[in-house]
Amino acid sequence: MASILQVENLTKSFGDLVLFTDISFGIDEGERIGLIAKNGSGKTTLLNILTGKESYDSGSVVFRRDIRTAYLPQEPTYPENLTVLEACFQSGNEITDLIAEYERTINSKDQKGLDSILQKMDTHQAWDYEYRAKQILGQLKITDFDQKIGELSGGQLKRVALANVLITDPDLIILDEPTNHLDLDMVEWLEEYLQRSRLSLLMVTHDRYFLDRVCNDIIEIDQQQLFKYKGNYSYYLEKRDERISTQNTEIDRANNLLRKELEWMRRQPQARGTKAKSRIDAFYDLEKKAQQVRDAGNVQLQMKGSYIGNKIFEAQHIYKSFGDIKILEDFNYIFARYEKLGIVGNNGTGKSTFIKMLMGEVAPDKGDFDIGETVKFGYYSQDGLSFDEGMKVIDVIQNIAEVIDFGNGSRLTASQFLQHFLFPPEKQHNFVYKLSGGEKRRLYLCTVLITNPNFLVLDEPTNDLDIVTLNILEEYLQQFKGCVIVVSHDRYFMDKVVDHLLAFQGNAKIKDFPGNYSQYREWKEVQEAIEKEKEQTAKPKEEKPRITSPKNDEKKKLSFKEKREFEELDTLIPKLEEEKASIETELSSGTLSSEELIAKSNRISELIDEIDEKTMRWMELSELM
After folding, report:
1. How many domains is the chain built from?
2. Distances (CA, A) of 299 to 260, 415, 416, 472, 479
3. Half-sphere exposure of 402 (CA within 13 A, CB side)
4. How far apart are CA 86 and CA 150, in angstroms?
């Protein structure tokens, strides 16, 4: 299989901070790779190096000469005076350059070279570029194509940039947190789009379901080194655990040997002979190895929420709308003690507005929230990340509390507290501006939890946090002795944390569902299927009775040939589904060679198209039964 990118012995540092040393990896055609690392380990820096936006200290980055790449950064920018559609023609790829050349030529006096350009337009299928752009923008809920870029929110701008990447149909796409600012429907659409495509992919994401279903390889940056795993996220978790266990065993063995060597070193006279020099050098090497700490970067949170009474809050006849857009209409809810509630729904349905009304930041049009006297909120908001960049990390926490008292004699200093959040002593004395985006998010989370609240309200807490921090935050929330409300598009996070949902469906429709997100999704699919079936059954009943001849009736029935076709489809479709499931299992196994991965991925795409086509035909014939 052809390689499209080869990275050899790459090293990058910022002053004394070394991100990675001598790392090497490659990307082959059809490979879909997920990049995992703790915040501050250099994930975004590596992507910027590969796309030429960042320099590196040593090593080499070599792309195959004919490769077309596209990059989605975390914070894309476009000229503010462009319209949404014009921004989609600003990517500077071969097709957009060709369209620009066509526009210049068609508007010139002599139209020199037009025939050649027309032929190229046909070859590259450039004529339907605008149609594809509008189609993908529509899937990402961007429908006003003439809206100016300067009028878009940060989330809308990220979606325009994502559409721009997909429209160009590159050989390799590099995505930095593509699911940020996407609602659940968009995430699932993107998931399916990438599964069906044949392009190569390198991606950083915190969405573990997305990572598991889209990627067939994982690379991890850990302690400045790179490790590669031939499988999806589930396979990576299993193999990484084996690697850490082996490493810990080696460290334990080194510690045992070190104790013996230490005794020998202490027995040595002050002037050591040359015979012992090699053993002394070996001692220092052994000491270095024994000092490696393998705690997998855990953020250990042992806090207990302060006492909370039986009355939490009651929403009483709440109404809220913005113009014609209804958010809540006569909404009533009694929140139970120790409840862990998840709020889901598409963008614009009112999830964050609901939270802001509860927190007193936005007033309802009618009704009120009656909040219990013992409730002490800890609020993590999407736009709450604001620090004095010139402050040190330790000062940010000490300004809130120098010592945190959890009762029962349990206390932590601000420095000890920060260490639980993966801020070692040397990083605590760094200035805030030196932190990565994810580290700033982690520090913000720390400022919320340090107040020891008994009711946590978390609005999109998973954005820009690394997977290690998410795992520990999930564990903390599961054990938290208080109340929790979480607004999130992260399905994995919701499944692990919440025990029931409020699903905002738009136009003030809210579904109170007893279960997690996956259970809600299954229920929703069943309901949609029932509704579809009802519509199909109701169609003939809606038709007015009319007198038809036997000849006309016969035309409505299946012919002998169509009956045979229907029976064959009834057997064929399950077989195709079975083959698809079997290949998906093989792709996740981590045992396939690169050639087999490409072949299986291509076959999956063919199967999806074939299943869709056969199912549509089966439905057409079934209506005539």
Report:
1. 4
2. 33, 14, 11, 6, 14
3. 0
4. 13
Q: Do residues 312 and 337 make contact, with C-beta atoms less than 8 angstroms apart?
A: yes
| CB of 450 closer than 8 Å to CB of 397 | yes
What's the CATH code of the domain at 570? 1.10.287
- Cβ proximity of 137 and 143 under 8 Å: yes
- DSSP at 499: S
Beta-carbon contacts of residue 509 (< 8 Å; ≥ 6 apart): none
Identity of residue 544: K
Cβ neighbours of 454 (radius 10 Å)? 23
What stretch of H or E contains 221?
strand 217-222
Same domain? For 160 and 93 the reply is yes
CA–CA distances in Å: residue 113 to residues 102, 120, 598:
9, 11, 40
Query: What amino acid occupies position 18?
Result: V
HEC readout, 111-167? CCCHHHHHHHHHHCCHHHHHHHHHHHHHHCCCCCCCCEHHHCCHHHHHHHHHHHHHH
Q: Where are the alpha helices (DSSP H) in 371-413?
A: 393-398
Tokens of 290: 């024994």
Tokens of 189: 């659409």
Distance between CA 290 and CA 261 in Å, rounded?
Answer: 12
Tokens of 71: 């990059």
Q: What is the pLDDT of residues 390-431, one digit of tens each?
A: 999 999 988 887 877 666 667 778 888 888 777 888 889 989
Specify the amino acid at residue 328. Answer: L
Containing domain of residue 140, as a range? 78-170
On whether the CB atoms of residues 28 and 200 are closer than 8 A, the answer is yes
pLDDT digits (tens, 9 = 90+) for 146-200: 899 999 888 889 999 999 899 877 899 999 999 988 888 899 999 999 988 888 9
The two structure tokens encoding residue 596: 């087999």
Residues 216-251: b if buried by 16+ CB within 10 A, e if exposed:
bbbbbbbebebbebbbbbebbbebbeeeeeeeeeeb
* Same domain flag for 558 and 524: no
